[in-house]
Amino acid sequence: MTRAGRLDGRIALITGGASGLGAATARAFVREGARVMIADIDEGRAAELARELGDGAAFVPCDHTDRGQTEAAVAATLAAFGALDILHNNAGGPFAGPVESADDAVLARVIGVNLVGVFKMTQSALPALRESAARRPHGASILFTSSLQGIKARPNYTVYTASKHGVVGLVKGLALELAPANIRVNAICPTVTETPMLRSFLPGMAPDMDEARARLKATIPLGRMPEPEDTANAALFLASDEARMITGVALAVDGGQMAG
Amino acid sequence: MGYPDFRLDGQVAIVTGGSSGLGQAGALALANAGADVVVAARRLPECEAVAEQIRLMGRRALAVSVDVTDPGSTRALAQAAEEFGPVSILFNNAGVISPKSLADTSAEEWRRTLDVSATGTFLCSQAVAPAMSRRGRGAIINMGSILSSVGMANRVAYATAKTAVISITRCLAVELGPSGVRVNAIAPTVIVTDLNRKLTETQPELYRRVLERMPLGRLGQTDDVTGALVFLASPAASFITGQTLYVDGGFTAG
Hints:
The structure holds two protein chains of two kinds. By secondary structure, chain A is of the alpha/beta class. Chain A has helices at residues 20-31, 43-53, 67-81, 104-135, 158-178, 198-201, 209-218, 228-239, and strands spanning 11-15, 35-40, 57-61, 86-89, 140-145, 183-190, 250-253.
């Protein structure tokens, strides 16, 4: 039985697309009919995932804090697939530690990766996204992977929290600015998920990883940690036509943490 | 690899206010995603008409008359629904609007507006959630509004009722989460339905101010909202609870 995919005919660019939430989203997008450009600083893993996904995917090395590389990632997408309909600003970087431990290098890295870089990536993609929104039947959209720390705070994550709150501000501003062009802009705010980034994240909560996991779980009403697929499904929904009236939202994928 | 999907095959849904407007659209969308549906509203013949549409789609359907403000009636609804099938989805959609100013809203209208939206959501959840909790599976979707987040002149009763619905959503998400029941809300902008279509055409000035503040530049259609309903009901949203998903074309972002 063939089934129409939610993203049939769409072309997506996913930063940080080679691992964790980005890889889960790339798999979900391809499964639902999209073609995906996997942009990642880890070229080897990006190439490996592109091979796994076959004709539906390609890869480009990309450090999204470098404007030359964000421009090149968009150019590579247009060269491979001919258009760009969905930009998923997923790449980000963690930091856990008390406020005094965030030296200038940490500040530059965390704000640079989580906020300035995604801004540059968005600017580089806008001409192609505007073209898609104007000429292609399904319009264009931008997704951001923010974080639960994009809408609430946690001690020892203050710099990270500030950067991810910044992303939600970016989403609201872009949503208003780009709505007339019919480009929707939304954020997904996952709680700490079982990904490679987890190892850098949990020590902020407890010295022992298992203890940190247990403490985290105790704060989640649904009583489990999320899987990358939970976030990928939210991204899939927000990028699809079913969300055509949804723009400017920050959707928490958090098992109820925000509610309580 | 067991990837969760957006389908609702084998699930049983209750839709209150299911005889018209967004409730009817929601009932049809849930059925289209594979669910069997209990269509509940005050007027049985209208519920039966929607149920018949669902049967024509190849799904099972049951029409039930309910007064969501009466605990006896909501218990009877839950019981009839359980006899029809194991309920795993509840769409608390019933609501009334009284578009009046502070001066013109009577105490009775105030109470009635809060009673249908807030008390109705509370009573239906209270009646239906225990069986969901016992089975360790359920999704409750409540109907909020952009007025759950912003104020508007001549909507004091409605906005208060819709804000209460969000509070119910958060509390029940925390309370029912450990037993596997998720609770979320959808909060749409003005949606054009059979109830207000004529008004939007003959008295566009009523909607002009909303439209001017709509970044996407149009009012909503029922199909704009049903995607969010099906998503939140489905296994694809299995880690999302306590959320209010605004389906508002950017209205509340600015």
